[in-house]
Structures are given as C-alpha cells and as structure tokens.
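User: I'm new to structure prediction. If I give you an amino acid sequence, what do you actually give back? Let's try with this one:
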Amino acid sequence: MNPEHPQPPRLALRILGRMAIHGEEFSALGDLEEEYHEIVKERGADKAKSWFWVQILKAIPAFTKHKIYWSVQMFKNYMKIALRNIQKHKGYSFINIFGLAVGIACCILIFLWVQDEFSYDQFHENGDNLYLVGTYLRLGNQTETSSGTPPALGPAFRAEYPEIVNSVRFCNGPHALIFAYGEKRLREYVEAVDGSLFEMFSFPLLRGNPKTALSKPHSLVMTERMAQKYFNTEDPLGKIIRVENKYDFEVTGVLKNIPRNSTLQFDFLVPVQFLEEHWNDPHHLQTHLQPRHRISDRLPVWPGLPCI
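Assistant: Good question. You get back a string of structure tokens that encode the predicted 3D arrangement of the chain. For your 308 residues, that looks like this:
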C-alpha cells in the first residue's frame, strides 16, 4: 500500500460489500472513499479509519431492517403466487400436496419404527457381551431351531469354557400360578431364573439386595407395578404370598418396571431351584451367557437369537 494514499480498512470494505444492495455497492463505496480521502488530507489516516468504521457500523441497523423487511415482502409475494396457482390448478395441486404429505408421513413412520427396533435391549450395560444359547434340532432332512436348552447347560459352559464369565438360566414356566395375599387371589405368570440375572442384565432393584434376592428356593422378586397391585403403599419386603395354596414365598426384592423395549418381559421372578420342587422337568429353559470377550466360533452359540 502506498503510504501517501492510504486505503480504507479491508474488513470494513467487505462488510460494506455484503450490506450494499446489488448494483449499488460501487456508488456507495465511491462516495465513502471520496469522503475518506478528504478526511485523510485534513485530519490524518487514523481519524479517517475511525470515521469509516463509524459509517459502516451506523449502516448495519438500517441494513438489517431493510433486509428483514424485503425478505418478508418476498415471502408474502411467493405465498400469494403459490395460493393462486393452487386455486387455478386444484387437481394437480392436490396430487402434489397429497403425495408429498404421504411421502413425509411414511418417512417419519419408517424412521420411528427403525429407531424403536434398534432401541431394544440397549439399556443393558453388558449388552455387547450377552448371548442367547439355542438348539439346532435335525429331524431327518429338516432342521428346527429353538431357544430351549438343557438345564445343566449353563453351569457346564461356565465349568468347561474359561471364556464364559457368567451365565443365567431363564425358564418361562411354570405358567399361571395362583397367588394369594389377604383377600386377593389372582393368577399370575412367573419366570424362574438364576440369581446371576442381576449381575448380567441391567434390571435394577428398587428394594432388596440383588446378590441375595433369589438365594432361597421360596424367594420372590416382583416388579414395582406388581408391588403396587398387591401391597398398595405397604413395604413389600418380607411379606409372604401364598402360591398354589401350597408354597409360601417371601418377597425379597422389587424391580423397577421392565422397559417396553426389553426382549425379556416378566412381572415375577422365582429361583430355578423352585422348579425341582414344583416342576421336575423344566423343558423350556433358556441359557444366556456373558463371555469375557466376543465368543469364538468353537462355542455353540446360536447367533439367530441374540440377547441384544
């Protein structure tokens, strides 16, 4: 830059170029530059730069108001044209608008459905290392798959494979037992599990100790919803529920209500040991494993029924 002919600040010139209406930036710049050079001669370059910045900053509110005003006017104009075209071509407009609305609705529904599917069992802290063991049944030329496994499979896995950190057996039976408490006599479904359920899965207990809640054969863990159903505002811990008019179960834990997006759904849990007393043939017992790392191919894990 020639010191004898100092130029206005570059940043201020850029701001002016942004604010000036198209086609008027050169005339606006010419007027300001002419005044700028006059001030340089009379009062010096520093005074001229200050004056130039003041003019730019003073123009910003007017520019902003002008920009907003004309943007609103243009939007109104576009809306008038659009409404006139809709009224003029009603059939064509209906097809386009209806098709667009249906397309957007379908996209939203598909997105919500996919999001819901991917949310299942994501709340388990050990989710990446949980597996459901299954069974292949070959009957002649046919092959069937099942989530049922022998009762001894879980403990055998832990004993034979060092990769297995923990296992839990989950039996969806016995079904529909009669629960009696006070004047209430209701038929309820129960699930028989190992106590390691609370170590592997993130089903938090609101009341009770997860390490001992299912340690006794006649222990009973229920969800918060069931506790409200049977005991209202009473403390359920230690209460006795008569089952099948034969067994006395002690409430040892209250679970937080099972999330809707959980594959495992239940309201009552009893220990697997209870099956030896009530039902000597647990024919549909699922086994869930928690390995130290990803399970290797040599383990008989059925990937078709993951826990997560």
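You can read the tokens as a compact description of the fold. Here is one thing that stands out. The longest strand covers residues 247-255.
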